[in-house]
Amino acid sequence: MEDRGYIWKALLMAALVLVCWGGLSFRLCELHLGRNEYLKDRIRRLHTVEQTILVGRGRIFDRNNKLLALDLPVRNIFVDPQTILSNGTGRAVSGHLARLLGVPVDQVWDRVNRPGRRYEVVARLVKDETAEKIERLRMAGVHFEPLTTRYYPHDAMACHVVGFSNLEGVGSAGIEQRWNAKLKGSPGLRQSEKDGRRRELYTRRSLEVAPQEGADLHLTLDQNVQYFVESALDRAMSNESFHCEAAWAVVEDVRTGEILGMASRPAYDLNAYGKTALEERRNRAISVNFEPGSVFKVGVVAAAMNEGIIASNDVFDCEMGMWHYAGRPLRDFHAYGELDVTGILRKSSNIGAAKIAVMLGEARLYRYLRAFGLGSLTGIELPGEEAGLLAPVSRWSKIDITRIAMGHSVAVNALQMLNVLCCIGNDGFLMKPYLVSRVVDKNGVVLEERKPEARARVLTERTAAQMREMLKEVTRPGGTGTRAAIPGYAVAGKTGTAEKLVNGHYDGRQNVSSFMGLLPADRPEIGIIVVLDNPQPLRTGGVAAAPVFSWIAEPLAHYLDIRPLTAGTTEYYQPVSLMDEDVTMTGEAAFAKTEDVTE
Amino acid sequence: MGGRNKKNVRAVNRVAVWGVSGAAVLSVLAVLYLSLLNHCEQLGRQLKKLEAERAELQKRVVNEEHNWETARGIANMERLMAQHHIEMSWPSEANIIRLCRTDGGESETGPAQYARRD
Predict the structure, then answer these.
(1) Residue numbers in A near B41 (CB within 8 A)
(2) What's the ipTM?
(3) What does the pLDDT look like over A449-505, one tens digit per residue?
(4) Distance between CA A429 and CA A68 in Å, rounded?
(5) Closest residue to A153, CB basis, from B40, B47, B69
(6) Which residue in chain B has the smallest CA separation from A225?
(7) End-to-end C-alpha distance for chain B, whole angstroms
(8) Rounded distance, CA A281 to CA A188, Å?
(9) Taking CB atoms and an 8 Å limit, are A72 and B63 in contact across chains?
C-alpha cells in the first residue's frame, strides 16, 4: 500500500510539473505566435529613445567680424539639501558656493538649509568657467544642469540694433527679432535604442535628421563707430548745458546706404533686458516720428533748385522776421532783410524757405518729398520703424506749404531725414539703407548678400553739388551750425529746432533739436544725424545738437581715415559708381529719372 | 554483400563530410557575424565618445570666443588703459604715413614700373 501511495504521489507531481510546463509553453507560444502587437509596442517603447537635437542661434557680427551676440554654454546650479544636511556639510558647502558665485553666504545657506527638500536652485545661468571651479570641489549634493543662453559680450552696446532673444530662444527685439527665422535654425531628430543602463546604442540608430544650425549675420555696423556715437550721446545726456530727455543718432555710408552706427539713449543692458522699461528699449532712430524743423529746408531748397526755379544766388526778401501768408503770420528766429538762397540755409530763415516752397508749388513739393522717401518706410531690416507723416496735397490747408517748408506739419524718423541728406551727398541718388550685409550658414556658405541699392535718382549731380556748397556755409562763421565744424575738414550740414507738441499745442520751451551733416563736404563719405529730445537749458540745434555731431564726426574722421583738406594729393577714395553691376536700382528710380532729372 | 557495405560506408562518409563542412561554414559565419557585430558596437561607442568630445570642444571654443571678445571689447580696453594710466590720442596728419592699398598685386597708382619704355 505504501509503495502504491508513493507511485501516486510521484504521478501527481509529474502531472503538476507537466501542467505547469505545459502552461508556460502554451503562454510562450501564445506570446511569440499569437497576437502580440501590443506587447511588442510596449517593449519597443521601453527601448526606443527619441531625442531632439537642439541647436543654438546663429551669431551676430559687426562689419569687422567682431561678435555682438552668441549662444553661450551655461549651467544652472542646484543642491540636494537632504544629502548635504545629512552629511553635516551645509555651512561649508554654502561658504564655498557663495565665494565662487560672488553672492552672500546667507543667500546660499537659505537655500541649503531646507531639510527634506531634494532640489533647490542656488544659481541660474552660471558661466561654464565658474561652474567648473565649483565642480572641481566635488561637493556631495551639488549638481549642475547644462544649458545654453543668448549672451551679448558688449552688454549695452548697439542694444537697440542687435535686440535680444527671450528665454525660449525667440528673437524679441531688433535684429534678433527681424532675423529670427534665419538665426534660430531648426532642431534635428534622432531615433535610437538604449541599453539596460539607459545609454543610447549607436548601432541601433534608426533615424537621424541632422539639425540645421542657425545662420550667422554680418552687420554693416562698425563696433568702433558705434562706440563713438554712443559715447557722444552719453556725453550729451549728461551735459549740464543741454542735458536732454532722450537722444539718438545714425551714421550712414553716403555712397552705399550702409548703416555704420545707430544708437539711442536711454539704453539698456542686453544681458538684463528683463529689468528694463519698455521705453528704454525703443530704437528712437527709426521708431520716433518727430517734426524735423529746419533740417527739412534742405529737401525743399534742393527740390526748387533741381526744378530750376531758384539759383543759389537768388535774393529773397525775408521781411525783417515777419511775413503774412494766407492771413497767418510766419516768423523768423532772428529778423533778416534780404538773403540769397545760401543765406537762407546759413541763417535758417523760415520766411525764405516758405517763399521758395510757395514758388515750387504744392504738387511738385509733395512729389519731391515722396521721391526723397518721406512718408514711407525706409525698409531698414529692423522692427518697429515708423513711416513718418506726410499728408497728400488734397489734405493740405492753405498755410501748410509754408509750415512744411520749415519742417512743421510733417513728421519723419531720423533715418529718413538722414537719407535726404545722403542723397545730396551721393550726387542725387537715394540709397536704400541697410544693416545686414551677409547671412552665412555654419559651413561658410553665403545664403544672402546685400548690395547697395539705389531707390531713386531724385536730384541731378549739379543740384547735389550746389546744395553741398551751400550747406558748407552753415558750419562756417555766420552760420547756425558753427559748433559742428571740425578743424581741417569742410562739413556740409543743417541745424534744426522744432517746437514740441504738448497736449495739442506747440510748447515754445520744449524743442526737438537736430543737426545732420556730411563729411567731408566735397566728396562725402559719411552722413550723420543727431537728434536731441528737449535739451535744456540750451535748446537749439546749433548749440545743442551741432556739438554732439562734432563729437561723433571728429574721431570718426580719424578712424575712417577721411582725408582733411590739408592732406596730400594721394587719392585712395573710391566712390561706388552707380554704373557698377554691384549697385541695383529699383522701382521709383525710373520715375525720378524721367520726371525729375532736368539736366 | 561486401560491395553493398562499402557503398553504404561511402554514402555515410559523404553525408558526414557535408554535415561537418556545413557546420564548419556556419560556425565560421557565426564567428564572423559576432566579430563584425562586436566591431560595429566598438565603432559605435567610439563615435559616441567622439560626439561627446566634439560637443565639449565646441563648448570650449564658444567660451574662448566669448572671453576673447570681452577682452578686446572697447569697454575693457578703456578700463585697462585707465588702470595703467595710458592716454591715447589721434596722431596729427603730419605724423601719418599712408601706404598705398593694393588690389590684386597692383597699387592704385598703377603697377610698379621697373623698365624704361623708349
Answers:
(1) 201-203
(2) 0.71
(3) 999 999 999 999 999 999 999 999 999 999 999 999 998 899 999 999 999 888 888
(4) 31
(5) B69
(6) B74
(7) 120
(8) 33
(9) yes
3-class SS of residue A499: strand
Produce one character per residue of A546-571: b if its CB has 16 or more CB atoms within 10 Å, e if not: bbbbbbbbbbbbbebebbeeeeeeee
The rounded distance, in Å, linking the Cα atoms of A471 and A27 is 98
Model pLDDT, residue A323: 92
Beta strands in A458-581 (DSSP E): 492-502, 505-519, 526-533, 536-537
Phi, psi of A91 (to 5 degrees): -65, -40
Q: Do B75 and A129 touch (CB under 8 A)?
A: no
Q: A315-317 and A322-325: which strand pairing? A: unpaired
Contacts A153 to B, Cβ<8 Å:
66, 69-70, 73
Rounded to a whole number of angstroms, the distance from the CA of B93 to the nearest CA of chain A is 7
User: By C-alpha distance, which of A178, A282, A213 is closest to A440?
Assistant: A213
Distance from CA of residue A565 to its chain's centroid?
Answer: 34
Q: In this complex, do B41 and A203 lie within 8 Å of one another by their Cβ atoms?
A: yes
- Please check the confidence at residue A576 and state whether its pLDDT lies above 50: no
Q: Which of A153, A201, A202 is facing B70, going by the closest CB pair?
A: A153
φ and ψ of A165, to 5 deg: -110, 145
Closest-CA residue in chain B for A73?
Answer: B59
Q: Which residues have C-beta within 8 Å of that of residue A434, sequence separation ≥ 6?
A: A220, A257, A258, A259, A379, A380, A381, A450, A453
